[in-house]
Amino acid sequence: MLSLVVVAGLVAAGAVAAAVLALVVGLIKLSIRLVLLPLSLAFGVLKVALLVPLALVVLLILAPVLLGLGAALLLPLMLLGGVIWGLTRVVAA
Q1: What is the pLDDT along the chain (93 residues), one digit of tens a residue?
Q2: Structural Rg of the chain based on CA atoms
Q3: Comparing C-alpha atoms, which of 63, 64, 60 is closest to residue 52?
């Protein structure tokens, strides 16, 4: 009977030690996150501040290229569509 009490006591002591260890680790994690919060916010603001001008630059560079590419592809497609339309009119007549 005494051995059961000893085993239960050891289990309870282990559970208390694990809970204390988990609490200490949780508090350390929380304190590290609170310490790093200003740094994280600064990088977030920096990313947003750089994203808007970068997006505008990409649009200013990419828009004329895509416009030229679309115009270059539009003319042959229009000619092909006209040829197909003309052939269907000739065949249908």
Answers
A1: 778 888 899 999 999 999 999 999 999 999 999 999 999 899 989 998 999 899 898 889 998 998 999 889 898 889 999 999 999 988 887
A2: 36
A3: 60
Cα separation, 36 vs 34, in Å, equals 5
- 84: helix, strand or coil: helix
C-alpha separations of 43 from 28, 31, 33, 36 in Å: 23, 19, 14, 11
Q: Which amino acid is at 44?
A: G
Give one DSSP letter per residue of 14-71, joined into a string: HHHHHHHHHHHHHHHHHHHHHHHHHHHHHHHHHHHHHHHHHHHHHHHHHHHHHHHHHH
